[in-house]
Specification:
Residues 246-297 are annotated as: Disordered. The chain is an all-alpha fold. Helix content is 71%, strand content 0%. It is built from twelve helices and no strands.
Length: 297
């Protein structure tokens, strides 16, 4: 990322040089997240479950650690779906890296139009997105490795409970922290980009929801929709053209509800009434009436 400048001409020049790459990253990222979502749902669909009653029945069978693990069916399922597991990891890696790139570009463009947007906020979606991408890929890869190790071993309860390694734990922590940082960054970027007019209100609010959903309830469909929309906008293919802020290099806040209503009324040939119109003067005034009565006398 280049240094942020408040000069509109330099801002527009920098954006022209980097906008297309950010758009491609956003679209590829959306495709990656879509692969991640589809592969994850496919893997989860037929995932075997283990009954807790079966575990309780084995307590009296002697040393449980040496018994065959009840998770053999689960590990067999994972071994049979290694390609799907890797697709989840690769899709997440591509998707969140694309999101980091697009959101980082949007952050720089926002700060160029809003000096109050702190510099450190630029790096939140970048650091968070890359961390989540790496953590997701490493975690899924470790599942494949550990599954093969278990299936090639004695397949006992002891082996099943000792599978998690330091690498897998590190990947889980990295993914968790990365997700939180990315969520915070995405919320701040979407909110401020909407305020300066770089994002429409629709995509500004969707970006805020997409960030919150990363922590509250992971649902990649929301991120896919937002990322694809941002990519289309950065390519200049957005319906209605670019928001004005992309053309001027300055903040162009969206009008409020009152201003919008007035603009719609003016386009319809109507001017919103601010006060009741004064009644038209009657052609027959009291003075005229008195004059007529005087003439009759």
């Amino acid at each position: 990322m280049a240094a942020v400048t408040q000069d509109p001409e330099k801002t527009l020049l920098w954006e022209k040089q980097n906008r297309t790459r950010a758009a491609i990253a956003a679209i590829i990222g959306a495709a990656g997240l879509l692969v991640y979502y589809i592969a994850f749902e496919r893997l989860r669909g037929d995932y075997p479950t283990i009954s807790g009653l079966d575990s309780l029945e084995r307590v009296g069978e002697g040393r449980v650690a040496d018994l065959p693990s009840l998770r053999i069916e689960e590990f067999q399922y994972l071994q049979d779906h290694q390609v799907t597991i890797l697709a989840i990891g690769i899709g997440a890696f591509i998707g969140f890296c694309g999101m980091a790139w697009a959101a980082g570009f949007l952050s720089v463009a926002t700060r160029a139009r809003a000096p109050e947007f702190r510099r450190f906020l630029i790096y939140l979606p970048i650091i968070g997105g890359v961390s989540l991408a790496i953590g997701s890929l490493v975690y899924r890869t470790s599942i494949v490795v550990l599954t093969n190790d278990f299936m090639d071993g004695p397949r006992t309860v002891a082996e099943a409970t000792q599978l998690q390694t330091g690498t897998q734990q590190f990947a889980q922590i990295l993914s968790g922290l990365g997700g939180v940082v990315l969520a915070i960054g995405l919320i701040f970027v979407s909110l401020n980009a909407m305020r300066v007019g770089l994002l429409t209100k629709l995509f500004g609010y969707i970006g805020i929801v997409a960030g919150a959903m990363l922590v509250i309830f992971p649902l990649p469909v929301v991120q896919v929709f937002w990322l694809a929309g941002v990519g289309v906008m950065l390519l200049g293919k957005f319906p209605g053209g670019d928001p004005p802020a992309w053309r001027t290099g300055k903040a162009e806040p969206w009008p409020g509800a009152v201003a919008t209503a007035q603009a719609r009324a003016e386009r319809g040939g109507r001017t919103p009434a601010t006060q009741p119109a004064a009644p038209e003067a009657s052609s027959k005034t009291p003075t005229a009436g008195r004059s007529k009565r005087k003439k009759r006398h």
